[in-house]
Each structure stands twice: as C-alpha cells, then as structure tokens.
Specification:
This protein has 9 helices and 7 strands. It is an alpha/beta fold and 256 residues long. Helix 7 runs antiparallel to helix 9 and helix 8 packs across helix 9. The protein binds S-adenosylmethionine.
C-alpha cells in the first residue's frame, strides 16, 4: 500500500472531494497563484500532476494552457478521461528534457518534489524545459534536521498502524537552509518563499477529521486495511506537523 499509488490517490480524492493530493486543495492553489496575472495562453507544466484536478483548476482560472506529467500511467489515464482540455503525458521528472526543450513559461509542482529520488537532476531537467526567464513554483513539505529528511523515509504506517521508519518510498522534504543553493546549482534564482506551516497544521487536522468521517465509504470501496493505512499515515503526518518536524512552504524561482 502506498498513498502515491492509483488506489491511494483515488481514496484521497474521495476524502478531499476533488482530484487533489496536496494539503489545502483549492485554497492552497488560490493562495499560491493569487498574485499571478491571468494569461490563458501561458505555457504551463504541472509536474507530478496526479489525478489532474490542480492542472484543470489552473486552466479554468485562466492562469495558462496546462500540460500535466506524472510517472504513474494508471492515474494519468483517469486524469485524461476526467479533464480532456488538459494535455497529459506519462513522464519521469528526472527525464523531461527527452520530451521538450526551452518550452514552458511556468512550471509548478504541488507536493510532488518531495517524492523525487534525485531532486537535483529534476531541477536541472526543469531548467532544460523552461524558457529563459521562466518561473518555477514549488509548493511542498519542508523539514529541518531531525525530520524524515535525514532518513529518506516517508512517515507512513503499515496496516497494523505502526510507523514504518524506512519505507521504500522517497521522502525528502525541502530543507529551508539548503534549498536556495540547490536551486541555484540547477540554474534557478530564488525570488520568494512563503511559509505555509501554520496552514499545514490546520489542513492536516481537518484532513484527519475527514478521514474519520469517511471511514465507511473507504472501507466499503477499498477494505478495512486501506482505511487503517490511510488513517495511520495522515495521523503520523499531522503529528509531525504539530511537533514542528514537518512544515510547508512555497518557493518561487526564476530561470537565470
Ligand atoms: C502527492 S501526489 C500530488 C499530485 C498532484 N500534484 C496534486 O496536488 O494533486 C505526488 C505525485 O507525484 C508523482 N510522482 C512521484 N515521483 C515522480 C517522478 N519521478 N516523476 C513524475 N511524477 C512523479 C506521483 O505519481 C504522484 O501522482
């Protein structure tokens, strides 16, 4: 079981009442993009787009013409069916320059970057597919020393409800002290950071309430083990946000 698998993302969509797998759902997108002038022709790339809800929201609100990519072909097939006005392509964030060169004016990621096994390579690939002067927006988890950043583990739990410290899934939240330098090394200049940790606290408490509220629907559709797994995963994450080892932020950078 993994929350980033196709059934995991389906369950999150059910709980969140929309095809989103990031904290704050539409509120988070609005907070992040509110200062961006509308331009429906802007060429936009959503990396790790999942079920496509964010890509379609961005398109519908006039922020650009969106292409969504994700490594998970099964999830993308549902996204394409749900949102025919968005272009989707199966691609690994570590190899996107095989598909495009110097194309996009805005590249954004909502809680996908933490899952990339080679983040520096992904930043370089984004640089290759961005136009000169393009904008990069990364909305993601943050973590300092003592957080799962050190162990490379995702704070998920097994179906027995026990914390699994070394999961197979990559989990590297952005380190606020190191990330600006990582951006710079890949040819991006950091322009602005907004901390969303207080919002994360509220969003994850609310998400845990909604998981409990949807217990019967999750169990009926996916079985009791999936309910236990989802519940334990997000209770762990809520705890990590409450004790301050995990936070959230958005980083805006420009292609040099
Ligand atoms: C937590 S979900 C977020 C989905 C979407 N951005 C949203 O907010 O609803 C993370 C997504 O990143 C995708 N992903 C993980 N590793 C990837 C990679 N190397 N290349 C492209 N996508 C990847 C996963 O398949 C998953 O759909």
């Amino acid at each position: 079981m993994r929350m980033n698998s196709a059934p995991g993302k389906e369950i999150l969509a059910l709980i969140r009442e929309g095809n989103y797998a990031h904290p704050g759902e539409e509120e988070a997108i609005d907070l992040t993009f509110s200062s961006l002038p509308n331009n429906p022709l802007r060429l936009v790339l959503d990396i790790g787009c999942g079920r496509g809800g964010t890509a379609d929201y961005v398109r519908r609100h006039g922020w650009g013409s969106v292409t969504g990519i994700d490594i998970d072909a099964e999830t993308l097939a549902s996204a394409q069916e749900l949102y025919p006005e968005v272009t989707f392509a199966v691609a690994d964030a570590g190899r996107i320059s095989e598909l495009w060169r110097s194309r996009f004016e805005l590249i954004y990621l909502f809680n996908a970057f933490y899952a990339f096994p080679d983040q520096q390579q992904a930043l370089k690939e984004m640089h290759s597919v961005a136009q000169p002067g393009a904008t990069l927006m990364i909305f993601d988890y943050t973590g300092r020393d003592g957080s799962p950043h050190d162990t490379g583990s995702w704070p998920e739990s097994g179906s027995d409800g026990k914390y699994t410290p070394f999961s197979h899934q990559s989990w590297t939240p952005l380190h606020p002290d190191h990330f600006p330098e990582e951006l710079h090394r890949a040819g991006w200049e950091l322009e602005q950071t907004i901390d969303f940790s207080t919002h994360y606290l509220h969003w994850y408490r609310h998400l845990c309430e909604r998981i409990r509220f949807n217990r019967e629907r999750i169990t009926a559709g996916y079985g009791e083990d999936w309910y236990k797994y989802t519940s334990a995963t997000y209770e762990n994450l809520r705890e990590a946000v409450e004790n301050g080892s995990i936070g959230g932020a958005v980083y805006w950078a420009r292609r040099a």
